[in-house]
Amino acid sequence: MSELQSLSAFDGVSAAGRYGNPNGTAGVTLTERANLGLATLEVRKGQTVALAEKVQAMYGAALPVGPVSASGTGVRFVGIAPGQWFAVSETLPNEDLAGDLATKLQGLASVADHSSGRAVMRLEGPAVRDVLAKGLAVDIDPSVFIDGAAALTNIGHIGVLVWRDDEAFDLTVFRSFAGSFYGWLQASAAEFGIDVVT
Amino acid sequence: MRITCPYCGARNLEEFTYRGDATVKRPDSLDESATEAWVDYVYLRKNPAGLHKEFWQHTGGCHAWLEVTRDTTTHEIVAVELASKGAEHKER
Amino acid sequence: MSQINRLTGKGLVDHSKTVSFQFDGQHLEGHPGDTLASALLANGIRLVGRSFKYHRPRGILTAGSEEPNALVELRTGARREPNTRATTIELYDGLDAASQNRWPSLRYDLLSINQLASPVLSAGFYYKTFMWPASFWEKLYEPMIRRAAGLGYPSKQTDPDRYEKANAFCDVLVVGGGAAGLSAALAAARTGACVILCDEDFVLGGRLLSERGEIDGQSTQDWAKSAVAELESLPRCRIMRRTTVFGVYDGGTYAAVERVSDHLPEPPAHAPRQRLWRIVAKQSVICAGGFERPIVFGDNDRPGVMLASAVRTYVNRFGVTPGRNAVIFADNHEALRTASDLADAGVTVRAIVDPQPQPSATAEQVATETGALYINGIIDAVSGAYGIKSVRIKDAQGASKTIDCDVLAVSGGWNPALNLTTHLGGKPKWDNALSCLVPGDLPPGMRVAGAAAGQFSLQACLASGEAAGADSARDCGFSPSAPSRPAPTEDGSPVAPVWYVPSSRGKAFVDFQNDVAVSDIKLAAREGFRVPDHVKRYTTLGMATDQGKTSNLNGAALLAEATGRHLGAVGSTTFRPPYTPVAIGALAGHHRGKDFRPTRLAPSHAWAVEQGAVFVEAGAWLRALMFPKPGETAQETVDREVANTRTNVGVCDVSTLGKIDVQGSDAGTFLDRVYINGFSKLAVGKTRYGLMLREDGFAMDDGTTARLAENHFFMTTTTANAVKVSQHLEFCQQVLWPELDVQTVSQTEQWAQFAVAGPKSRKIIEALLDSGQDISNEAFPYMACGSFTACGGAPARIFRLSFSGELAYEIGVPARFGDGLIRTIMRAGAEFGIGPYGTEALGVMRIEKGHAAGPELNGQTTAHDLGLGRMMSKKKDFIGRFMGQREALNEAARAAIVGLKPLDPKMRINAGAHLVKRDAVANAENDQGYVTSQAYSPELKSFIGLAMLSDGPARYGEVVKVCDPLRDYETLAEVCSPHFIDPEGERLRV
């Protein structure tokens, strides 16, 4: 373990507490998901089938072919582009996930580590869709944006990858945008009240 | 305007970046006699009133380069395809 | 005075509660459910403003958003908003409004003298009058006109309120919640379709609230209430009140503004004032209703002259009568209801004036029932400047009669509110039977119902709304039930409208808001204007906040007559978004002030703030510009940072540079093709500088690329071009060479990267690395790269690169360790005198070294111009190769990079200055190039510059003149090599 202090993207940006409308239950709850393993994998030329089989064998997940996510043992694979996935893991934290993927998928996919490059947060609560609608120009009606659905898009001029996990929404933005994104979120959630949990 | 990305689905215009005519083909840069073809490729563009096949990139989404067939007089979009379609089968 | 014109027991206002408000400082009362207009009328106030050009006293013409006259300044202080329509302002307790365009007071307005000058203030008056001298325009005419004209004044303070944007998606969007809109929404929502119903009003119902009719045995007001209740009970139906759909865009996109808090004294805590909606709808039904047309006659703008339908709205919806003695002037039977409703409310109806050529038995009967005189004739004159007192009526036989009255209800028929159908270029078409324009070709997915479609009767509204709602739902894949309402039968034969009364006395206004009179349109026609859009620009007919909703067609009719054409052939002006005015704040939403655009913060940002750094914007990034110490000037800070880096060691956050991970078995080939120089033969563990061209042969970006493994490269780009280069690479991958096995992804954010530069930099890097790793000059020479572990196991990439020209390393760690690493570097470097340096010092050092950067990569320079022509490979294909070889891009006479040293070292070489020969005159003919970058070099104790100079590299030693006429500055400088310091690069290799 390095002696360098590890800081999450929201360190110094957010502080736990209730913000905005103080009345009643908060409309939305924000939880930072720090220290996740995050990596992209892009299929090597001509290896689409082999990669899918290997991922199935190694991680127990069927690589999705569109903007949806599939969970295997410890790793969620989110479809972000043709032949590209964003992998997320709690059990293989930080740089471990990219290392693990690169080893197991060698020759089948190019793997790049993003565990430090993204801020990941979970938003949930009764007003979560109303808050997200203030930035997300994607239909997130439960009948359209089903469990596991994903979208790579923008919120307030900031690129965002969002996927639905049951009734929660996980959002990732570039680490450097964490402060600006948090500002948008605070403003947008204010009318409903927001609980920031750390 | 909205463009239906073959991967991401229908998205607003501001997620896309325009490049231009998608019918032009890059000439061979080692063919020293290809001057005319290169001038055409780099500088000369048609400006059709009606259907136009053009490159757009879904920069706000999956980053896929798209070939969009658009009616320049109505903004109606007739077809959207991945520009890399069939790449797997191209000769090495 | 307390609500003398309130009708007890009538209307939808809450008579049991009182709301206090002020108008021009006068304290007044109204009821919840009132608009400012209805409350003013309830208090007997008819005069509410002065007109734009002639400062004529004006009152309230309408009861809706089409109001041209009753514009007020709403609220005070920072929230003051000019030109707000009193007819749409929802009354709230404490409301404070003021009339506009009058001084010193509404009643005594000095500039009303303009009325006397009205013969001069005709159409095109500005164009004709203020022609010369030209200099007078800016200094005299424009300020004078601006003070005299115009309406209200903005607060000029920062808007204290918050605005936001939101997105919505639906199957069916219904615009307008009147009879047609409610029917359409019910028909669609009952199928289970996702429906959004928007209405600009705060109560749904449209004209159902304003009329005394019946639907299915219920009053129209009650029917509207129950329809809304049913819609609210349907889970996939969303009702948006106080929401105006103001624009239609391609792809089923609709813009709407929701006035979240405008009906309150100020927005509640945490709520925005307004919310801008982008609604994407598969289908839409436009049920925007209609606009009643005034009849144009002399002095038709006197306060108290009001549209007949508006009178009914005030009586039936607000329980207010606009007066006690009414005259009706209408060319159609629908307006007769105004007489009935007024009489029913106990208001005296003095006369019904019918301008049609033949007398009407129906109208005569209504007159008898309401106790009014029926006169088949016209309004000949109006008296009462500040409020109508009487009208002179001339009958068909030419006999005149003067009748005292305080309200004149006027109707010239109806126009469909078809504005939204034309935003995408649709052209309205003329309907001969209805004598109005009706929607023409519609955008995909749009239907129109009710009055907006020319279906004016109540039955037609209900039936057409239901049909359009059902059809829209069906097109979205839902199954509507069979229609419940039969299409209505024609109700009587239509009559030709009466557009204006030519014989009446006084100025006859077509457009009240812009004071455009009949005479102006006739003048425009005489001067050759024939197209309504041209007449609009010339006369201002249909401009400003109401966009001619009550005036366009009357104006077109007058134009048709004046030019001897049929009105159907003349058409109308083009309607564009927005339908009604939209606050700029709503369009900006969250993105104002510091949130104008998002900001990116580098990994060392918090630390740099602690050090007192001054920051600079580089794209979206904030970068440390310099780290001043107390008492230093900016120049002293930069000099110190440069000197310390050159003598000891400095550290700079370079994380903002674009970093692109390039992998795949063809990665080397790919890089060969995107750079002018080769990379496939670069050894693993080495880094190389590369230049990218555009396909036209001009430089696009530069940077270094490291080979981390056989099939793994790591590219850097300039901060400014990171995104552009990524997109370019993706184009090459996906479009040009999809057969290559290469994968790219941006890793800019993953790595916190610091340049540690200076003679003592190696000692610091060695101290950071975990033991057993060798970065000696032999093991890790200049341009080497590799993966290491640092500070107890943190993964670290080290690149022996130098932008500053000193022995230097770039060390990268995962960004989560970035803050920790900069603090550790500073601790480890303390004994070597380490100091941070910002982008300003970095800039000085790269200029001293002659490295090209943004100012040199300016889109006009080639590899030759940058002194890199020889790097262009002759053998391989690469982007820009063919066009980059063109003779003109490589000839010696082109401006190419040189250094400039002023003869007097204290003289600046201003960036942007142009170069001419020493004795030449500074003019465009003698221009030989330009200065791209300038700096003060502490090492040379001289200002220096980089420049692009014609045939530059052959002219070292020559003295040229640096000319900066914009700053009135000239100096002489010697042309030299751009490599001012350590030209052989010896410091890099130690």
Q: What is this structure, in a nutshell?
A:
Chain A has 198 residues and is of the alpha+beta class. Chain A contains four helices and twelve strands, in the order E-E-E-H-E-E-E-H-E-E-H-E-E-E-H-E.
What can you tell me about this protein's structure?
The complex is a heterotrimer of chains A (198), B (92) and C (990). Chain A has 198 residues and is of the alpha+beta class. Chain A is built from four helices and twelve strands; from the N terminus they run βββαβββαββαβββαβ. Chain A has a seven-stranded mixed sheet with strand order 1-12-2-8-11-10-9, with helices on one face. A five-stranded antiparallel sheet of chain A has the order 4-5-6-3-7. The longest helix of chain A has 12 residues, at 48-59. With 92 residues, chain B is mainly beta. Chain B contains one helix and six strands; from the N terminus they run βββαβββ. Chain B has one helix spanning 35-43; strands spanning 2-5, 9-12, 17-21, 51-57, 65-71, 77-82. Chain B is globular. The model of chain B is unreliable at 88-92 (pLDDT under 50). In chain C, the strands form 13 sheets. In chain C, strands 8, 9, 12, 13, 14, 15 and 28 form a seven-stranded mixed sheet that branches. The mean pLDDT of chain C is 94. Classes of the chains: A alpha+beta (198), B mainly beta (92), C alpha+beta (990). Chains in contact: A-B, A-C, B-C. Chains A and C meet through β3, β7 and α4 of A and β8, β31 and α20 of C.
Mean pLDDT of chain B: 92
Instruction: Figure out the total of helices of chain B.
Output: 1
Overall average pLDDT of chain A: 97
Number of helices, counting only DSSP H or I runs of 4 residues or more of chain A: 4
- Helix-strand topology string of chain B: EEEHEEE
Q: Give the strand tally of chain B.
A: 6
Feature tags:
heterotrimer, B: 92 residues, mainly beta, two-stranded antiparallel ribbon, 10% helix, 36% strand, globular, disordered C terminus, C: 990 residues, alpha+beta, seven-stranded mixed beta sheet, six-stranded mixed beta sheet, 50 strands, 26% strand
